[in-house]
Every structure is written in structure tokens, then in C-alpha cells.
Design a protein that fits this description.
Elements lengths: L42 H5 L15 E7 L5 E7 L1 H5 L3 E5 L34 E2 L5 E7 L2 H9 L2 E6 L6 H6 L3 E2 L1 E2 L2 E2 L2 E3 L2 H7 L2 E9 L11 E7 L2 E6 L4 H12 L6 E4 L14 H13 L3 E4 L2 H7 L6 E9 L5 E12 L21 E10 L13 H19 L3 H7 L17 H12 L12 E2 L2 E13 L7 E7 L4 E4 L9 H13 L6 E4 L16 H23 L14 E4 L2 E4 L2 E7 H7 L4 E7 L12 E13 L5 E11 L6 H20 L5 E2 L4 E2 L18 E5 L22 H13 L15
Parallel strand pairs: 1-15, 13-14, 17-18, 22-23, 29-32
Antiparallel strand pairs: 1-5, 2-4, 2-6, 3-5, 7-18, 8-9, 10-18, 11-16, 12-13, 12-15, 16-17, 19-20, 20-28, 21-22, 21-27, 24-25, 25-26, 28-29, 30-31
The structure holds dioxothiomolybdenum(VI) ion (MOS).
Length: about 775
């Protein structure tokens, strides 16, 4: 048997792993909220308009900020005329590098995870006359109203001594590339001799795939409202990292992060970009300088100018196979653009390293430096574009083999990770493929491209794999307050960007404590709460879940210490009780039950407060943990205009246990909609001469609108992962990965045209 095709038994779960729901006696008090389609607990306040967002906090003496941006990509400002702005009505302050206080550098993310740094771009903030990209903030205007600030900012005029700049991806590539390193190590993977195996393969494809830059367009643009109370800074933010933002601002401002409180109870979308950027720093500095609370809400144009997104990339994917479709070699290499001052990884080649059994691999990613707005992680960094290349190539290979593309994938399923050989904790990708194909009606697909016509419309079906790695970050912690009325409130410094975080965690908490859902609540979005959480990497559910499991265990332990003589629980140990019916009970004799109210009352306690820390993420030590699935879609392409309409789409998902089918479906739909944008319309267009974005608006950068989105059907295997807290792997970034290739593959099936260059706009099909 060849390595990579063996079925290795999954090793035993780590001992004492509190996250293993089925192995944990405490979970026997389960009331069954997990897995039910509970409606979002934050839904009512949102639809009533009562959910405060960062730019909606009022202060009596609030001043409003607006930014002016550089208009060259690189050089020095030789003049910065602020006189007209200063004389403009209502202006309170004009802040530039000339009068800004001295600040420390931006520390950015700490890739070692030692410090809770956050942010992609590490330049000094308004500290000198240097310009690093076209769109860099060069002045902040503070005024009595937003309109006055906006107008005054438009009066700022800079003159420049421009320097040669690299303002296109082509120019960046031409200047040479260097290997991408993560954690100081090159991410190159080599197994066997892939080039030789490719050359020796009976059938192969070897193609180049191009993807454009993308911008995040969260429905709520970045915003902060800040106020100083003496030496304490209050920040109302829209962020994926409350604690990290407080810590990082503290470093830059040179003050103790404990004196900064960042709250962000509601976030109107994040996708990776809702982190610390220069506007946080500028708002805090302007507020301190002016002695007034400040609101700085980026305009949509401002979001494009000063926060970056997915970088442009060019990838080579080559796949070689035997006549029977067994993959022998995968080569996946490519380069993307980033900045020299703050290189940030877009690990596109990693998409190919975990899925197809193959004897040989070469996988590598390179960076090309450009003087453009900072790139950053955008929903499923690396994989979104990596899967476009890989899953297009696999479809092309199926065509050359004359084989159904699903059959080709099933022939190359593997129970162990082909790189490194670890078994998957739980992999039911084949079930997802089969169930999806059945439900979608894949058997009705014509294998002959261009053969199905309906008037001017050519119809076709395509599919592609989705996958994303499981992640649980260290540092998760939770506090639980149990009160004399038998209610429990948990607090975690985590985030709700619309995913259903608090809802799902309330379900876990209610089940773990044996409480009705209306007797529990979960607080979040406050840097003063426990735990070091980031809403990134599809990691929050596991991270919070692991912390809540630990905290509920501690709570039960503390409750047992309060048990008094006369209690039905007297003499029982933690291992002997479970939570059920609003209290604790003996596992072997449920009639020995005492309610939480009663335990606290007997002990004369008004409340019991405990904290718990999630265990280190050791569940990944011996297994590979990934979510899997498949996207199926049907397209109709006009032979007259080249327009593509996606008419149906199905996601068939294997993500462990689905904690809440309603919120999970919403996550999957959101990812699929984002994938449709990448497939068909989204592209940040830079003027190659000067690096300025020319489509910095939602009118010119087209994200999918309702008419672009067909009915989205979803099914899942719902097989709990024994290694993940509550059995659930991450889902946030999963579904977007395979959408663009599924659409491209369907377009090929419909038209016979293979487009290897996103987005697939009409002119490419004419
Ligand atoms: Mo995500 S791109 O890890 O917020």
C-alpha cells in the first residue's frame, strides 16, 4: 500500500480533555439546546435599531473627525497646507505629523502569540513626512459636525517629492520575489520528487491561475468613538479583538493597557479587517490633544484608502495522475503582493497540502513587494485563492481523464494527512460529496461541455471542495456568575460579528449547567472581561466553548464545596455529579438533586463567581483537524452578453457537530455569497501608474446584491468531532473556499471555456 492511502486508526483522545463532550460525565446533565435552531439572541435589538454600533455612542462635547489621504504612492511631503482647513467653520483641530505627539511604533500581530498585538501595518502613525502608499492618512481634522470635518479635510493640500514606487503586481513580480516565512520558517513543503512524478504521470495539467486584489466591504465601515477620562481611555470600537486592541493601543500611546477599555458589543461584519488600523491611534491622539471625545468613522472610500484586503496573486498548479485517476504529484506554487515594511502572509499554497492523497508534493508561496495599501487577512486567507487554483486544476484533470470530477475526488480521499501522515480527527468528506451530489441532482449533469442550451443561455454544473483548518487559540478564559435566583451569566472578551457567538455559547452554557436558556446569558465584546480571544481563524466557537467547559467544571467544583449537611448532594465528588434541572444531581441517583438556588441559600451566598481557563490546544497534537465539504452550483451563461447567472448552489458540509443549524446556515450562506463575489464581480482596481484605487466605492466595487444570489441549499453530516469542544470544528471561513472554483468549473461545463483569471466578467466569456 502506498503511504497516504492507509487507514490509520485515530488515536485515543487526550486524557482529561474537558472538551470531549461525550467523554465528560458533566455533560450528562445535557438539556439539549445544542444542535437546535435557536434564533439569534441579539436579533431583536438589532432589528429594532437598538443595538449601539461604534459610531453611535454620544457624548455632550463630541467632536467629529475626518481624514485627508496622500495622493502619491511613495516619497516625502514637501508642503502640507492646512491653513484653509484651520479657518474653515467649526474646525477644532488639524492634526498632522507636525503637531502630533511622539508615538511608539505599531507592534502589529505577534506571530508567536506571546503578546496580544493586533494589526497588519506597522508604520509609525503620522510621525514624519514620509508617504508609504497612495491613500495614507496625512491629516486629521476635528470639527463640531461631521460635515464640517469632511469639508475641512477636503481643503488640505499637500505637495510632494515623489520617489520611484512599485505600483502594480506585474512590476512587483518583475522586481523579484522572496519566500514566504511564517513564524520565521519557510512554508515550502516537499515530499518526493513532484516534478519528476508529474512528468512521469499518464495524465497531467499544469496551468497558471490569476486572482485580483479584493477589499473587505463590511456593512459597517470601521469606526471608533473615544473619550479620555483623566488617564483612562474609553474606546467604543468595531473590532475582532477587544483585548488585543486595548493592549496594542497601550503600546503605541505608551500607557498601561489596563487603563484602556475597549468595548465592541456589536460588529457589522469583520472578515479579518476589523482590527487595529491607524484610525484608532489618530482618534485617541486627537481626543487627547483637543480634550474632547472624538468619533472617527471611516467613509467607504476611507476603508478602501487605508485598510487593505486580499492581495493579487499568480499561482501555478500542476497535478499528475494515473489513467485511473490516482493522483501522483501536486505542484502548487505562487506569489502575491505585500509591503516591504509590513509583509503579511497570504499562504496560498497551503490549500494543497491536506487533502488529496499523492506521492509527491511541491508547495511554496512567495512574496513580491509593492508600495500599495497594506494587504491583510481576508476571510480564509490563502485558501480562497489557493482553492480556486487547486480545484480548477482538479476539474481540468477530470476533463482530461474523461472522469466525473466527483469520482476523481473520491478516488483520492485519504484518512491521513498526506503531509506528515497524521490521521484526521474526523473526516467525512466522502459522505459530504455523495450526499451533496444526490441532493443536487449531479447525475443530470451533461459531461460534455457546451452541450446544454436554452435559447441564448448555456447551462452547466460545477463543483469544488471546501476546507478549512480547525483552530483553537491559547488564552481562552471565561467567568461565570451564578446568582441566588438560579441564573448564570458568563463573560468572555469575545466578539459577535453576526455569527451567532453569544447565542451558540448560551446554548452550550445552558446545557452544561442544566439551566433553561432564559436563565443564562453570555456577555462579550469588552476588554475588561476574561480571556484572550480574537474572532479570527474560525476559532471562537472552540475557544469560548473550551473556556466555558472549564469554567462550568470549576463552578460545579466550587458548588460542591458549599454543599452543607442535609443536602442531597452531601458527600458527592465532582466525578459523581452532573448538572440537570437547574441544579446538581448524583449521576447514579438523579433523585439526589439540589437546585442552585438551594445550594447558595443554604450556604448563605448571594452569588458564586468562578473563572476557568481553556486547556492548551493539545487536541491538535496527534491529529489533523479540518472541516470539509463540497460546493455544487449550476450556472447559465448568456452566449450573447457573456453574463453569468448562478441559478442554484448547494453546500454539503462536514464540520463536526452543528451547534445551531440556524446560525451555522447563516455563516455558510454568508461565505458562499462572498465566494460568488470573488467568482464573478469583485476586484480592487489600482491605477498602475500611481497605485491609487480607482473603484473605492460600493458603486464601483460590486459585492453580490440580492439578484446575484440564487437560492442556497445547505446540508451537513453533523458528525461530532471527538477532539473539538462540544464536537464542533470552525465554520466561519469554510464555505467561501470552494465557491469561485465551483462557479468556474460550472462555467466550463456550460460553455467549454476555461477561465483561470478571476473575476469571471462577461468580456472573458465572449
Ligand atoms: Mo479571519 S480572515 O481569520 O478574520
Amino acid at each position: 500500500r502506498r503511504p497516504g492511502r492507509t487507514t490509520t486508526p485515530v488515536p485515543a483522545v487526550p486524557e482529561n480533555w474537558a472538551g470531549v463532550a461525550h467523554a465528560d460525565p458533566l455533560s450528562r446533565g445535557h438539556r439539549g439546546y445544542v444542535g437546535t435552531p435557536l434564533a439569534r439572541l441579539d436579533g431583536p435589538v438589532k432589528v429594532r435599531g437598538r443595538a449601539p454600533f461604534a459610531a453611535e455612542y454620544g457624548y455632550d462635547d463630541l467632536a467629529y473627525a475626518a481624514l485627508a489621504y496622500s495622493t502619491i504612492p511613495k516619497g516625502r511631503m514637501t508642503g502640507l497646507d492646512t491653513a484653509a482647513a484651520e479657518a474653515s467653520p467649526g474646525v477644532v483641530l488639524v492634526l498632522t505629523h507636525r503637531n502630533a505627539p511622539r508615538l511608539n511604533p505599531q507592534p502589529g500581530y505577534d506571530m508567536s502569540l506571546r503578546d496580544p498585538g493586533i494589526g497588519f501595518e506597522r508604520l509609525p502613525v503620522m510621525q514624519d513626512d514620509r508617504v508609504h502608499w497612495n491613500g495614507q492618512p496625512i491629516a486629521l481634522v476635528l470639527a463640531e459636525t461631521q460635515e464640517q470635518a469632511d469639508h475641512a479635510a477636503s481643503l488640505i493640500h499637500a505637495t510632494y517629492a515623489a520617489e520611484p514606487a512599485v505600483t502594480s503586481f506585474a512590476a512587483a513580480l518583475a522586481a523579484g520575489t522572496r519566500p514566504l516565512e511564517i513564524f520565521g520558517r519557510r512554508i515550502r513543503v516537499e515530499l518526493g520528487d513532484a516534478e519528476q512524478a508529474l512528468a512521469a504521470s499518464a495524465v497531467s495539467v499544469d496551468e497558471t491561475y490569476r486572482t485580483p486584489p479584493h477589499h473587505h466591504n463590511t456593512i459597517e465601515p470601521h469606526a471608533v468613538t473615544v473619550a479620555w477620562h483623566g488617564d483612562e481611555l474609553r474606546v467604543h470600537d468595531s473590532t475582532q479583538g477587544v483585548l488585543h486592541t486595548a493592549w496594542t493601543l497601550g503600546q503605541i500611546l505608551g500607557i498601561d493597557p489596563a487603563r484602556i477599555r475597549v468595548t465592541s458589543p456589536f460588529v457589522g461584519g469583520g472578515f479579518g479587517v476589523k482590527v487595529l488600523w491607524q484610525h484608532h491611534v489618530l482618534a485617541a491622539v486627537a481626543s487627547r490633544t483637543a480634550g474632547r471625545p472624538v468619533r472617527l468613522a471611516l467613509s467607504r472610500e476611507g476603508v478602501f484608502r487605508m485598510t487593505g484586503g486580499r492581495p493579487p496573486a499568480e499561482q501555478r498548479v500542476a497535478v499528475g495522475a494515473d489513467e485511473d485517476g490516482r493522483i501522483r504529484a501536486i505542484v502548487h506554487t505562487g506569489a502575491y503582493a505585500t509591503t516591504r515594511h509590513s509583509p503579511w502572509p497570504e499562504p496560498l499554497s497551503m490549500a494543497s497540502q491536506n487533502h488529496y492523497a499523492s506521492d509527491a508534493f511541491v508547495l511554496d508561496t512567495s512574496m513580491a513587494y509593492a508600495d500599495l495599501v497594506q494587504n491583510c487577512s481576508m476571510r480564509t486567507p490563502g485558501s480562497t485563492i489557493g482553492f480556486f487554483a487547486l480545484e480548477s486544476a482538479v476539474d481540468e484533470l477530470a476533463g482530461k481523464l474523461g472522469m466525473d470530477p466527483i469520482e476523481l475526488r473520491l478516488r483520492n480521499e485519504t484518512a491521513t494527512n498526506p503531509i506528515g501522515g497524521k490521521p484526521f480527527s474526523s473526516r467525512h468528506a466522502a459522505e459530504a460529496w455523495r450526499a451533496g451530489a444526490e441532493r443536487f441532482g449531479w447525475s443530470r449533469r451533461s459531461p460534455v461541455p457546451g452541450s446544454v442550451r436554452d435559447g441564448e443561455w448555456l447551462a452547466g454544473m460545477g463543483c469544488a471542495m471546501v476546507s478549512h483548518h480547525y483552530q483553537r487559540r491559547p488564552g481562552g478564559a471565561a467567568r461565570i456568575r451564578l446568582t441566588a435566583d438560579g441564573r448564570a451569566r458568563a463573560e468572555v472578551a469575545a466578539h459577535e460579528m453576526g455569527m451567532g457567538t453569544a447565542t451558540v455559547q448560551s446554548q452550550i452554557l445552558a446545557d452544561r449547567l442544566g439551566l433553561d436558556i432564559d436563565r443564562v446569558s453570555v456577555g462579550y465584546g469588552d476588554s475588561a472581561m476574561p480571556g484572550r480571544f480574537l474572532a479570527v481563524g474560525s476559532s471562537q466557537s472552540a475557544g469560548i466553548g473550551g473556556a466555558l467547559l472549564a469554567a462550568t467544571r470549576n463552578l460545579m467544583d466550587e458548588l460542591l464545596k458549599l454543599v452543607r449537611d442535609g443536602s442531597p448532594l452531601a458527600g458527592l465528588t465532582l466525578a459523581e455529579v452532573g448538572a440537570v434541572n437547574g441544579g446538581l444531581a448524583a449521576l447514579d441517583d438523579p433523585s439526589r438533586h439540589e437546585s442552585y438556588e438551594s445550594v447558595l441559600a443554604r450556604a448563605g451566598r448571594a452569588e458564586l463567581v468562578v473563572e476557568g481557563s481553556g486547556e492548551p490546544p493539545a487536541e491538535m497534537a496527534n491529529v489533523s483537524m479540518f472541516s470539509f465539504g463540497a460546493i455544487f452550483c449550476e450556472v447559465r451563461v448568456s452566449s450573447v452578453t457573456g453574463e453569468t447567472r448562478v441559478s442554484r448552489i448547494l453546500g454539503s458540509i462536514d464540520c463536526g457537530r452543528v451547534l445551531n443549524p440556524r446560525t451555522a446556515a447563516s455563516q455558510f450562506r454568508g461565505g458562499i455569497v462572498m465566494g460568488l463575489g470573488a467568482a464573478l464581480t469583485e476586484e480592487t482596481v489600482f491605477d498602475d501608474r500611481n497605485g491609487r484605487i480607482v473603484n473605492a466605492s460600493l458603486g464601483d466595487y460590486h459585492v453580490p446584491a440580492h439578484l446575484d444570489v440564487p437560492p442556497i441549499d445547505l446540508i451537513w453530516t453533523d458528525i461530532p468531532d471527538p477532539y473539538a469542544p462540544a464536537g464542533a470544528r470552525g465554520i466561519g471561513e469554510l464555505s467561501s473556499t470552494g465557491v469561485a472554483p465551483a462557479v468556474a468549473n460550472a462555467i466550463h461545463n456550460a460553455t467549454g471555456r476555461r477561465i483561470r483569471d478571476l473575476p469571471i466578467t462577461p468580456e472573458k466569456l465572449l
